């Protein structure tokens, strides 16, 4: 009877979902700097080669790694996971998949999921990644005297999560303490605890205990009676005088050094500003009329007066055309195969856009494509407000002091360059180089809609000396007596920080 009931329950389970997805059954533990492995499997065993396998962070759209159409899809990953994941598919025919996440940081901690889908069915599993870091051995220092007592300081860095820190006396008893915790640029905790000890204190220990790993590190110090002998004020006065003289000459030397350094920096920034403004003036001499082609626009993009593109929440009823993009993109009616051409685009206050050029023969029916020169796209991209990057063919992050809302695009076909200018501060953002073949068209992509912040993207008229440029030149004329730091903030153009 029991066997019969078990068989019926198994058949009901299989009929309701065909298979189930199982992930880690308890939180995955990982140390900072090491790798973590997430394993998912189908039960009963099912071949997953033709299925979609998505590892995500927190929510379905935050892709950590995507396997679809029999291959990995790296262009769908969030930027912070680019180049850090590897999908192990040795047992995929048995429905077992494992993802390795390399070089763990504290920012990786949180909930993760594995979503597996066939043509008619899908399931997911959720688990937690707990990240830990074991900090340094505590360093005990003597900070000085408080009346006739001695103040000790214990420091340890590189912990995650925040450790338990305490002092212990000679018999192992806990001592009252003052503590302070800071977070470094990597999200790790630095801990300091202080203690005031009296004469005959004996052996004092500083303990740091990890919350998750049940491990602790200890340092011990023995305070001898010699430290509590009266201080010779005559000797202390001499030492203090020597230290004050050394400090005075050190400050003077540093002031001279930084004065020279700031002078060189200000001169370099002034050269960069003038160079960028000169290049922009030269580019504007090649301004051309650019109008958008409504027949190429995605159904959710509305083109008005041939200059403005607006994102609609629902697709429009538009005629089918081979020229129309399945991405939320639109190109210009004009195409270029030689010469120099310049135009300007106002991106407004949108959080996402792509601006540049593309080859006329790109596959417009492809919804998912990497916008790189290898695929016929030369674009500047804005993702989530202030992350600017392009593909050349790798990611290049750009960190502007003045976020651009209006972009100048300059194409020099024969030289194989396309330059992007920040019209807001008259600076050169970046220049892409390559080799052009065939017709190129101005390209705009408007990938997302936000009711609160979404604004139209507009092809702007180009003037040789706009009011914006004139006001910028007046603002950047700074008297010699002004603060050099303010000058550097007003004139610093985009500087790439490195490949992402």
From TrEMBL:
Keyword field: Immunoglobulin domain, Membrane, Signal, Transmembrane, Transmembrane helix
Segments forming domain Ig-like: 150-222
Gene3D superfamilies: 2.60.120.920, Immunoglobulins
Region annotated Disordered, chain positions: 468-500
Lyase recorded as keyword: no
Cellular localization per UniProt: Membrane
InterPro entries cross-referenced by the UniProt entry: B30.2/SPRY (IPR001870), B30.2/SPRY_sf (IPR043136), BTN3A2-like_Ig-C (IPR053896), Butyrophylin_SPRY (IPR003879), ConA-like_dom_sf (IPR013320), Ig-like_dom (IPR007110), Ig-like_dom_sf (IPR036179), Ig-like_fold (IPR013783)
Segment forming the signal sequence: 1-17
TM annotation in the entry: none
Family: Belongs to the immunoglobulin superfamily. BTN/MOG family.
PANTHER family recorded: BUTYROPHILIN, BUTYROPHILIN-LIKE PROTEIN 8
Protein name according to UniProt: Butyrophilin like 8
Native source organism of the sequence: Pongo abelii (Sumatran orangutan)
């Amino acid at each position: 009877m029991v066997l019969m009931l078990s068989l019926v329950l198994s058949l009901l389970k299989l009929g309701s979902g065909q298979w189930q997805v199982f992930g880690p059954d308890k939180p995955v533990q990982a140390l900072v700097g090491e790798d973590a492995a997430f394993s998912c499997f189908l039960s009963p065993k099912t071949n997953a080669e033709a299925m979609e396998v998505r590892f995500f962070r927190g929510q379905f759209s935050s892709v950590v790694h995507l396997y679809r159409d029999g291959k990995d899809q790296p262009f769908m990953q969030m930027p912070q996971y680019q180049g850090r994941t590897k999908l192990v598919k040795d047992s995929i025919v048995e429905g077992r998949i494992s993802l390795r996440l390399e070089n763990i940081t504290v920012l990786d901690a949180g909930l993760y999921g594995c979503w597996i889908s066939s043509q008619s069915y899908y399931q997911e599993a959720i688990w937690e990644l707990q990240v830990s870091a074991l900090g340094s051995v505590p360093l005990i220092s003597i900070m000085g005297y408080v009346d006739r007592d001695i103040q000790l300081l214990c420091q340890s860095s590189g912990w995650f999560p925040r450790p338990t820190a305490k002092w212990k006396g000679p018999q192992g008893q806990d001592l009252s303490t003052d503590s302070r915790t800071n977070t470094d640029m990597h999200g790790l905790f630095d801990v300091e605890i202080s203690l005031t000890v009296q004469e005959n204190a004996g052996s004092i220990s500083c303990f740091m205990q990890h919350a998750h790993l049940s491990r602790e590190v200890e340092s011990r110090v023995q305070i001898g009676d010699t430290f509590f002998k009266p201080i010779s004020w005559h000797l202390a006065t001499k030492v203090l005088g020597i230290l004050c003289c050394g400090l005075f000459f050190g400050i003077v030397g540093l002031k001279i050094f930084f004065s020279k350094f700031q002078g060189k920096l200000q001169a370099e920034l002034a050269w960069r500003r003038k160079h960028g403004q000169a290049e922009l003036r030269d580019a504007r001499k090649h301004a051309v009329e650019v109008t958008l082609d409504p027949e190429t626009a995605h159904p959710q993009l509305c083109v008005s007066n041939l200059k403005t593109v607006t994102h609609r929440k629902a697709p429009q009823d538009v005629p089918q055309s081979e020229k129309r993009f399945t991405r939320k993109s639109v190109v210009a009616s004009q195409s270029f195969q030689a010469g120099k051409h310049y135009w300007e685009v106002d991106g407004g206050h949108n959080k996402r856009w792509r601006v540049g050029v593309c080859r006329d023969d790109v596959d417009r029916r492809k919804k998912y494509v990497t916008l790189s020169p290898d695929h016929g796209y030369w674009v500047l991209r804005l993702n989530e407000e202030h992350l600017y990057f392009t593909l050349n063919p790798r990611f290049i992050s750009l960190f502007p002091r003045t976020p651009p809302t209006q972009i100048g695009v300059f194409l020099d076909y024969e030289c194989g360059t396309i330059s992007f200018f920040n019209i807001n501060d008259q600076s050169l953002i970046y220049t892409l180089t390559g080799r052009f073949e065939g017709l190129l068209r101005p390209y705009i992509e408007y990938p997302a809609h936000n009711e609160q912040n979404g604004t139209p993207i507009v092809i702007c008229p180009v003037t040789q000396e706009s009011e914006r440029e004139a006001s910028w030149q007046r603002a950047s004329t700074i008297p010699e007596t002004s603060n050099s730091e303010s000058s550097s903030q007003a004139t610093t153009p985009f500087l790439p920080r490195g490949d992402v």
